[in-house]
């Protein structure tokens, strides 16, 4: 029997997708991943807040638009890099969703909670320093809170560790 020919030899199953080295789970790697995520979130968040505020929308529709655009731009930036590496669209979409969903969700939760709790921030207008100051500080707080989440995910081969496999 063919199986008997391998008696005494160690048998190893190798799944090549799992043997790909990923970025180490350092704070610097996590900060870069978070900054990448923050860029897309900030674009969407600022655009949504500007549009909602300029149109005189209420707080809830403005926040819904800002959150929707934050996810859109967060995913779009990741997709741009993955598609640039020649990955098929369907695979790229799956990778972007897996890599960014938790990070964007945490970032948006923290960012919008800070803005909602900041006295007067929700009523501030585009020409008000409070509008821009609260938005900048809320994004900074979101960055600080989300970085450990990304470090945890990268350390487990998830999140942006998956994206880095396509950049080489």
Structural description of this entry:
This protein has 168 residues and is an all-alpha fold. The protein contains 5 helices and no strands. It starts with 26 loop residues before the first helix and ends with a helix.
Keywords, separated by commas or semicolons:
168 residues; mainly alpha; 5 helices; 68% helix; globular; disordered N terminus
Order of helices and strands: HHHHH
Low-confidence stretches: 1-20
Q: How would you sum up the major sheet? A: none
Mean pLDDT, all residues? 84
Shape: globular
Name the quaternary structure. Answer: single chain
Share of β-strand residues = under 5%
Radius of gyration: 21 Å
- What is the count of β-strands? 0
Structural class: mainly alpha
Distance between the termini: 42 Å
Number of helices: 5
Q: Kindly state the percentage of residues in helix.
A: 55-70%
Give a quick rundown of the structure.
The protein is built from 5 helices and no strands. The protein has 168 residues and is mostly helical.
């Amino acid at each position: 029997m063919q199986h008997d020919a391998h008696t005494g030899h160690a048998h190893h199953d190798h799944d090549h997708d799992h043997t790909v080295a990923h970025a180490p789970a350092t704070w610097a790697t996590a900060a870069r991943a978070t900054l990448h995520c923050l860029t897309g979130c900030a674009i969407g968040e600022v655009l949504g807040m500007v549009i909602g505020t300029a149109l005189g929308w209420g707080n809830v529709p403005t926040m819904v638009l800002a959150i929707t655009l934050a996810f859109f731009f967060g995913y779009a930036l990741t997709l741009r890099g993955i598609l640039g590496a020649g990955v098929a669209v369907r695979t790229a979409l799956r990778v972007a969703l897996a890599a960014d969903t938790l990070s964007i969700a945490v970032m948006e939760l923290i960012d919008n909670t800070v803005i909602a709790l900041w006295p007067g921030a929700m009523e501030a207008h585009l020409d008000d320093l409070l509008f821009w100051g609260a938005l900048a500080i809320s994004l900074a707080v979101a960055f600080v809170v989300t970085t450990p989440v990304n470090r945890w995910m990268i350390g487990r081969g998830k999140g942006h560790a998956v994206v880095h496999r396509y950049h080489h």
